[in-house]
Write a structure and sequence with these properties.
single chain, 393 residues, alpha/beta, Aspartate Aminotransferase, domain 1, Aspartate Aminotransferase, domain 2, seven-stranded mixed β-sheet, four-stranded antiparallel β-sheet, 15% strand, Aminotrans_V_dom, Selenocysteine lyase/Cysteine desulfurase, lyase, pyridoxal phosphate, PyrdxlP-dep_Trfase_major
Length: 393
Amino acid sequence: MPSNAQNEAHWQAIAQRYDCEPGPINLENGYFGRMSRAVQAQYLEHVAFINRSNAVYVRQRFEQGENIEIRRQLAALIEVEPESVAFTRNATEALQSLIRNYNRLQPGDQVLISDLEYDTVKGAMRWLAAHRGVEVIELSHTHPASFDSLLQTYRDAFAQCPRLKLMALTHVTHRTGLVMPVAAIAQAARTHGVDVILDGAHALGQIDFNLADLGIQFAGFNLHKWIGAPLTLGFLYIAPERLADIDPDMGELHYPITDVRARTSYSTPNFPALMTLPLVLDEHRALGGAAAKGARVNYLRDTWVSQVRSLPGIEVLTPDDPRLYCGISAFKFGGRDQQAMADRLLKDYNLFTTTRVGASFGTCIRITPGLVTSVADIHHLVTAIGELHRSPL
């Protein structure tokens, strides 16, 4: 862990670069991230400029070259070729495009999801069942999870379902922050001829990874969670050698069939947001990238988890194996209504959190620190959990 992850003065100086509305302490930084004050100012300048110049600038300059440089910088962020990425509005749009347009399925084939996938990903895979005649295999992971148990669950599924052709895999689950052993699962999938579509929405910006090392050829990402971009920016990735396995989106003709950008819907994008992306990427690198951001939020996570895991009636759902967690973690108050307890965290302690549902373990409370979160905020959370777990039902 970089030494400055615990340097409170360093991170509170960084926090001063972000405007925060007065109100509850925000421990729900996983929905979307903040723009820095500098990024916000430039974004608003670009909004005003595009409003003034309208199609003259967009047609003559942005579409004729400036967007190509922005795309090149994006590709450099994840160390891939520019020809392998296409902008979308968010990870959901990217993943839906990949799932919808994957063309290697035949009626009777099987596709795989787990209880930890994002709901729109589950919905897209079930859509394949209705429209492509495939069977959806749905797994429920056991908790507490371990590296070996997660991998074995998939190995068992591959062995038991010989018609499997495609699976969704979430790098960082939005419910508990569990980090999946992607490389090991993808390797096992390849052995059985199963393609993986990776949901990288929460991974990009807080986890260092290399797609080639992970063995991933299809993926969708967000830029407005941990990178610091304006809302409505995401992208998809398709390994160039696999481009033909994803059809152009609904007959998309604005780009040639050989262009990855044909694999998602063509529309008028948020030009000001795209124009701001170079500054966003500069700031991300200047902060130390995913390594520094991840180390900081991991430290904040460790601070609260280490103090509440042993409390009677408190169940922390995210393991402590450093391979399997990031800054996001989730817990439950035993025998309580989790939404009611989240409401009490807000009402009694001024702590804003969120509940997550849809996994086999039921409802949980997700805690997601951000770059503006202080250690004092985390200590306040620990106090709140400690007092609430002793309170009457």
